[in-house]
Amino acid sequence: MDTNLPARCLAVIPARDEVLTVGGVVAGVRATLGCDVLVVDDASTDGTGAAARQAGANVLRLPIGLGAWGASQAGIRYALRNGYAAVITLDADGQHVPESLPSLFAARERTGANVVIGTCMERLSMAKRIAWRYLRTLTGLRLRDFTSGLRLYDAKAMSRLAGPEASLLDYQDVGVLMLLASQGMRIVETETPMNPREVGHSRVFASWAIVARYMFNTTVLCISRLDRGHRAATVKP
After folding, report:
1. How many Å apart are CA 9 and CA 83, to the nearest integer?
2. What are 170-204's pLDDT values in tens digits?
3. Which DSSP string corresponds to the chain?
4. pTM score, two decimals?
């Protein structure tokens, strides 16, 4: 294993209207990992990009909003083109604790996984637990949290996620994980602490209408892949 991986990793932070928190997130990542940080400004209107740049990040501004997955994929493509060995993604809202980031690299060292997801079971509401149980049954992926934005991708996973098939996905969770599992990649979770969101709201759980659209789209996506042998046994809890 590459013990210098954190320094050769790019931290990618998709951000839309997160001016109040993005600077602190960037500073925390730089202090903890010492790696480069890229904030993908998803067409913000509140000065998010300027705040991120002031905190020491490079900023890639998208001309139109692509959503969390589109912004994350833009960051992954940037990392590949610039020779980074891995990408760690995290949210711009301050939920992820910077001091917990090394645990994702430790999990990769320990397991050899292509993807490590930072999960926090305490943050999951009863509704989410029921939804995730449904998705586990539908996808065959034995994961506890499908929507955590705290993830570590190695070079193999980055290459797959930069491809055109991944561009068709709406979200960074189930579709991305099914795509990677179908390629035989190993996905693991590691428990991490998370802070409660102080401002703003989740883009997936912003309203019941958005939740219903998310569950409908995800169900259709899962059903469309059932006959392609994508219930991979490579995903470990």
Report:
1. 9
2. 666 788 888 898 889 999 999 999 887 666 555 55
3. --TTGGGGEEEEEEESS-TTTHHHHHHHHHHHH--EEEEEE-S-SSSHHHHHHHTT-EEEE-SS--HHHHHHHHHHHHHHHTT-SEEEE--SSS-B-GGGHHHHHHHHHHH--SEEEEE-GGG--HHHHHHHHHHHHHH----S-S----EEEEHHHHHHHTSHHHHT-SSSSHHHHHHHHHTT--EEEEE--BPPP-SS--SSSSSHHHHHHHHHHHHHHHHHHGGGT---TTB--
4. 0.84
